[in-house]
Amino acid sequence: MFESVTIKDIAKALGVSTSTVSRALNGSYEIGTETKKLVLEYAEKINYRPNPIALSLKEQKSHSIGVVVCEVANDYFSQAINGIESIAYNRGYHVIITQTHESFDRESANVKHLLSRHVDGLLVSLSAQTTDTSQYKYLLDKGFPIVFFDRAAPDLNTHKVIANNFQGSFNGTEALINSGFTKIAHLTNSNNLLISHERFEGYKAALDKHGIEFRPEYLKHCNHGGMIHDEVETVLKELLALDDKPEAIFSGSDRLTISSMSILKKWSLKVPGDIAIAGFTNSDVVDLFDPPLTVVRQPAFQIGQMATEMLIKTIESKWPVEEFTTEKVDTQLIVRSSSVKAI
């Protein structure tokens, strides 16, 4: 079971009284500057956070779950959160949702805030900027329950629920190839994310299967995952300015797919006449686009449910959980006219 650091622990380590630690943490004028500095630096070093809610709870349980996602407005994550809540509330847990907006600093701050609220566990989907996962390793080493979903940290030993990114990307790229396209660009998220690598590998494998050479200039990363419109416009302009420009685009994320479609429409480019498009998205309205959009759809609601079940099982386990699984969930390819070569 996870045990948070207490004022008593700090007092014992520093050889001072608990009242001295408490006053130092509260900024009391009764404590000397040097002592106060000593306490505050040690508290920061061991990641101590006060637990105002937990203090009043007999079992030190808040019956709440912290969720860390890049953006609630993202179709995938809004559906995943619905899945999370459908399980959590039925099991007596409240859900506290935070957004990183693809910022590592905001992600770190969100995790610290959730810990200060004494959540019983975390459901995390990493930001596009995150390369340092040491805060999660620290918590996992202490026995704190964390489950990653969608964007997982490959180096951390804990439960994970992800889509079959390789197969989904392979299927989406092959749908374009089967329509007669051979010059296919790949627009994807930050290179920091494991999903970007898995989806690139799927795209490349589809090219390999059909004897199409991978062209590095056709691979474009958007480090903010499509949240910054100008970033998507810039990479699309770069692709369309190539001497041998692509005939089609396979997009590796929800935001990028929708943004690309709207930008191409704004530029009065015909889809699929001027350029075809297919990509990952969980938007419920893509069949209403002109033309309707070919998509790789992830079972976001199901992924949210599965991750929450895993987390609650870990939280409620009477013994330390030492065996972890990675659940890989199949995607669904829906072919529509945006990827079909005009005759």
Task: Describe how the helices and strands are arranged.
Blueprint: H1 7-14, H2 18-25, H3 33-45, E1 64-69, H4 75-88, E2 94-99, H5 104-116, E3 121-124, H6 134-141, E4 146-149, E5 160-163, H7 165-178, E6 184-188, H8 194-209, E7 219-221, H9 229-240, E8 248-251, H10 254-266, E9 276-280, E10 294-297, H11 300-316, E11 326-329, E12 332-334
Parallel strand pairs: 1-2, 1-3, 3-4, 4-5, 5-11, 6-7, 6-8, 8-9, 9-10
Antiparallel strand pairs: 10-12
Helix pairs in contact: 1-2, 2-3, 4-11, 7-8, 9-10
Kindly describe this structure.
With 343 residues, the protein is α/β, with parallel strands linked by helices. The protein folds into three domains: 7-45, no CATH class; 54-162 and 300-329, Rossmann fold; 165-297 and 332-339, Rossmann fold (3-Layer(aba) Sandwich). Helices cover 40% and strands 15% of the residues. The protein is built from eleven helices and twelve strands. The protein has helices spanning 7-14, 18-25, 33-45, 75-88, 104-116, 134-141, 165-178, 194-209, 229-240, 254-266, 300-316; strands spanning 64-69, 94-99, 121-124, 146-149, 160-163, 184-188, 219-221, 248-251, 276-280, 294-297, 326-329, 332-334. A six-stranded parallel sheet has the order 2-1-3-4-5-11, with helices on both faces. It has a six-stranded mixed sheet with strand order 7-6-8-9-10-12, with helices on both faces. Helix 6 (134-141) links the parallel strand 3 (121-124) and strand 4 (146-149). Helix 4 runs parallel beside helix 11 (300-316). It is elongated, with a radius of gyration of 24 Å. It holds the Pfam family LacI. InterPro entries: Cro/C1-type_HTH, HTH_LacI, LacI/GalR-like_sensor, Lambda_DNA-bd_dom_sf, Peripla_BP_I. It comes from Mucilaginibacter gossypiicola. Keywords: DNA-binding, Transcription, Transcription regulation.
